[in-house]
From TrEMBL:
This is Phosphorylated CTD-interacting factor 1-like. Signal peptide: none annotated. GO terms for cellular component: nucleus. Residues 1-95, 170-190 are annotated as: Disordered. GO terms for molecular function: mRNA (2'-O-methyladenosine-N6-)-methyltransferase activity; RNA polymerase II C-terminal domain binding.
């Protein structure tokens, strides 16, 4: 037997002394089990030797520290004051069944925990509870895998928790002292960090001052300009497949008809002055498509009515007969003229948007207004148009297209028909005119025009100078109605 196995035996297995006596080891905790393991042949021989000597009555067990000298007796008394009363081998083994003893289990006392525990000198396994030891025993002959053996009951929190005796719970005074000492340690670090806060807050208006109100003067209409320079834009990829163009950023792909993609290029070239080399064009196109897709909604065909537009022949007729060059409600995706107002000035302005219509104050010009069918927005539109017409003495005209909802009539429809600036009106019956699809930038050409299921009311709002210049005469109105008719009706 090597030295490592001998040391292991001295720690765990009772040894034969010169006077034929054994000494019982005292283990502080089950975790103090020996690291090295004896061979099965040495353990079997040693157990047989011990059983033979115990059966012959050649010795008895006693606590570590017993001897012939007086100094060893005093050490024995001190050890017994901290431990349980010594137990003989017969008493220790009498508490365990014979099958557990044959399996290598012995009962020992834990000095630290003040309770007995069970240690297997063959497998180095430690357990606190004898019942758990009995429940985990398997029959190696009939059930070697433990399939037929019932599973042990779940352990309670008291069994899992390893209690420690003589551990004082901190008093509130100790907790308060620790808190105060922690604040004292953190204050030198916290105080310098708080000092720059009011300084930065005070300098913020000087670093980012509010932009002054532009003076009210008559200028040519121009796109919205952002007061803060645009940051560096990420890289965006795109590829063209026939009539569809795909714009991709971080695995998310937006699609647009190639004709509308080329339209965005032309609008960007006309209106964007800070990117002549088109370095930021693809990134801004992706932001534009993502913004409007979120605005429309996640469901299929959701929100397409919000972007319905007039047919191209109607726009051409309005420009030829009434001098219209501006759309009050449009977007870069569905606009016909290169001047328009839209909902999102921060991204639409790169493609020619003049901002929201309620923030737009023209002095002269002829405008087309086809608002989304939102009653609150249509009422705000009427207030804004009447205010502009009342303030301007130059030619100013608004041709408004709204649905003819008369059951019950909307507030905007009633106010438009009773407005002092109304110069004429005409009603187009349902299913006798068309609108362009709200998703015209992604839908195929065969689905571009959609017949209207409701009547459309066209109202001309003009001041005196606008009425003189763009009066809605009978000939002009009839030509407008002819342009509104679907192509199948013309044939």
């Amino acid at each position: 037997m090597n030295r490592a196995n001998s040391n292991t035996q001295n720690n765990r297995i009772p040894q034969m002394s010169t006077n034929n006596q054994f000494s019982k080891p005292v283990i502080s905790a089950p975790n103090a089990a020996p690291v090295q393991r004896q061979s099965s042949r040495d353990q079997t021989a040693l157990l047989q030797n011990q059983s033979l000597k115990i059966g012959q009555g050649q010795g008895h067990l006693h606590n570590e520290g017993q001897g012939e000298g007086q100094s060893k007796n005093s050490h024995q008394n001190q050890a017994q004051s901290q431990m349980s009363p010594p137990q003989s081998t017969n008493e220790s083994e009498a508490e365990l069944p014979m099958e557990l003893l044959q399996a290598g289990w012995r009962r020992f006392w834990s000095k630290r925990e003040g309770r007995p525990y069970y240690f297997n000198k063959l497998t180095n396994q430690s357990l606190w509870d004898l019942q758990q030891l009995l429940d985990t025993q398997l029959d190696p002959l009939s059930d070697p895998l433990g399939i037929a053996t019932p599973s042990p009951p779940p352990m309670s929190p008291s069994d899992i928790r390893m209690t420690r005796l003589s551990v004082d719970i901190p008093s509130p005074q100790v907790g308060n002292k620790r808190r105060s000492s922690g604040e004292a340690l953190a204050s030198p670090v916290k105080r310098p960090m708080q000092q720059p806060v009011p300084i930065i807050s005070g300098r913020n208006p000087f670093l980012y001052p509010d932009l002054p109100e532009p003076p009210r003067r008559k200028v040519m209409c121009y796109p919205v300009l952002l007061g803060v320079p645009c940051p560096r834009m990420p890289t965006v990829e795109h590829h063209i497949e026939g009539e569809t163009t795909y714009v991709r950023f971080k695995g998310e792909t937006m699609k647009i008809n190639t004709s509308h993609f080329q339209k965005l290029e032309q609008l960007y070239r006309w209106n964007c002055k800070d990117d002549p080399r088109f370095d930021k064009f693809l990134a801004r196109v992706w932001c534009l498509l993502r913004r409007y897709q979120t605005y429309f909604g996640p469901q299929q065909n959701e929100g397409f009515l919000l972007q319905g537009a007039l047919p191209v022949p109607v726009f051409e007729c309005l420009h030829r007969l009434f001098g219209v060059t501006f759309e009050c409600f449009a977007s870069p995706l569905n606009c016909f003229y290169k001047q328009y107002c839209s909902a999102f000035a921060d991204i639409d302005s790169y493609f020619g948007s003049r901002g929201p219509i309620l923030d737009f104050h023209p002095v002269s010009g002829s405008f087309e207004a086809n608002p989304p069918f939102c009653e609150e927005l249509m009422e705000a539109m009427v207030d804004h148009f009447e205010s502009l017409l009342a303030e301007s003495s130059e030619p100013l005209s608004f041709i408004v297209f709204i649905p003819e909802w008369r059951d019950p009539p909307t507030e905007a429809l009633v106010r438009l028909e009773n407005s002092v600036f109304k110069r004429g009106q005409v009603t187009i019956p349902p299913f006798e005119h068309e609108y362009r699809h709200g998703f015209q930038h992604i839908c195929p050409k065969t689905e571009l025009n959609v017949k209207s299921s409701h009547g459309t009311l066209v109202i001309f709002l003009q001041n005196e100078a606008g009425f003189v210049k763009w009066a809605p005469t009978t000939e002009r109105v009839n030509e407008l109605l002819l342009a509104y008719r679907p192509k199948d009706k013309l044939n």
